[in-house]
Amino acid sequence: MIENVHKNHPNGGGTPLFKQISVVVRPKDVIAIQGPSGQGKSTLLRVLAALDTIQSGRISLLGRPVDSWGPCEWRKRVCYVPQQPAMLPKTVEDNLALVSKLHQRKFDQPLAKRLMDEVGLGDLSWSQNPAELSGGQKQRVQLVRSLLLGSDILLLDEATSALDAQSKQAVESMLMRWKEERGTALVWVTHEQEQAERVANRFWYLENGDLSETVKKDELTSFSLDQGGVE
Ligand SMILES: Nc1ncnc2c1ncn2[C@@H]1O[C@H](COP(=O)(O)OP(=O)(O)OP(=O)(O)O)[C@@H](O)[C@H]1O
């Protein structure tokens, strides 16, 4: 999906943040991105989401370069979920219905209800203003809103950083069910080694501009047989 991507450090010093990195994302992959702070994990998600520029390289999905999809279609297919939830100052329901409004689709209320239940927000009033919610509640509402887009790839930036252990487990289980049902790939920045090991089948490590990859042992055979991926 990304080939020889080169990006300079945003500090303007001319040092590379990414040095010719290439990776493929396959349906149902769960990829944990790890590495020291400031090495470009969030930036890599934004590059994949076509929200940040690169100096050279190719970003594509299903064999088509990002430019040929157009920004709106790309964002439907590749959805970035930022660490800090950005909510409309309306109701929870307005926020949940936002993506269907933006993309002229019917709001799937039963699905939204099911997902809210699954992330432990079954009792939350949908008429509340998100400003009244806790950080962890906002993070889960944002995640459900993103899932309703039905994208091929979800880019999760520390998606459970504001959650207690129980809610974190609920979110992890829901995301695992979702990717099995829908074939969605999850590319997930997490600082938690234990979480990475629980959820991921592939691991990307970013440091000094290089991306190295390891794969779970039981995945090695299928991985080497199936390098084709989404691209
Ligand atoms: N808008 C910006 N302007 C200038 N520098 C930026 C900007 N955004 C990120 N950076 C710099 O780019 C580098 C990569 O940042 P990024 O947030 O991608 O790293 P990260 O690996 O996700 O870090 P962390 O683990 O701390 O979240 C950092 O050195 C950061 O200071």
UniProtKB/TrEMBL annotation:
Signal peptide per UniProt: none
Keywords: ATP-binding, Nucleotide-binding
GO MF annotations in UniProt: ATP binding
Domain ABC transporter: 2-230
SMART domains named in the record: AAA
Pfam families per the UniProt record, alphabetical: ABC_tran
Name of this chain's protein: ATP-binding cassette domain-containing protein
Origin organism lineage: Bacteria, Bacillati, Bacillota, Bacilli, Bacillales
